[in-house]
Amino acid sequence: MPNRREWLSGASLIALQFAFLREALALGGVEKGIAHVKGDARINGTPAKAGMDVKAGDVVTTGPGSEIAFVIGRDAFLVRANSRVEIQGEKDSLIAAGLRILTGAVLSVFTPGQPKRVQTATATIGIRGTGLYVEAAQDKTYVCTCYGAAEIVSSADPSARELVRTTHHEQPRYVMAKGAPQMLMEAPVINHTDAELTLLESLCGRQPPFAPWPGEEINRRRAY
Questions:
Q1: Could you tell me which residues come within 8 angstroms of residue 82 by beta carbon, excluding any fewer than 6 positions away?
Q2: pTM
Q3: What angle do CA 142, 117, 17 make, to 5 degrees?
């Protein structure tokens, strides 16, 4: 668990990184669509720009050192570098049914009460109003149910499944590829922060259910 100094240091770092969101929120300028683009981020191969819509059927890609944050309906997403993500649902709809993450990492906050599904090469994750962080590769998927409930199912062995209920990152999991001795494994909390979740929820007019001390956020960024 990070100590008080680490919390403060992490909060300062994320506050600087996401200053664009704080300013936009203060101005009331962030609405549905793309809120932020850093580096080479594309929608269906077209360079992404702030204010563009992201819809069901779209493919979101990011290059090295890039990221993109956007809102679809009342769900918000932060796609990290070197990612390829397909938005699931009825084509051109402004409501997403879920995500297919082919590679890379996505932090998501979803509308309470609406079932969604996130798919990777090794996992299917059924959610309902959940904060979720996923890193996807061919050999394993990292899943942190930051808060809420998620049913995590192995693609290689659908009998290997777990219903996870959390309030604050309590049960991260690795979901392994076929051939691993165990399909679902316990994992540490890595590579996402409470500050990021708070800002994504703010884009949808919500607050996360956890309540950090004023001015402090848990920062758990480590190499994956």
A1: 62, 63, 64, 66, 103, 104
A2: 0.85
A3: 55
Encode the chain (224 residues) as per-residue pLDDT tens digits.
333 333 334 444 455 455 555 555 554 544 689 999 999 999 999 999 999 999 999 999 999 999 999 999 999 999 999 999 999 999 999 999 999 999 999 999 999 989 999 999 999 999 988 999 999 999 999 999 999 999 999 999 999 999 999 999 999 999 999 999 999 999 999 999 999 999 999 999 899 998 654 444 444 443 22
Which alpha helices (H) appear in the chain, and where do they start and end? 4-17, 19-27, 194-203
- Measured distance CA(4)–CA(99) in Å, rounded: 35
Span 31-207 CATH architecture: Sandwich (2.60)
Q: Which sequence spans correspond to the domains of the chain?
A: 31-207
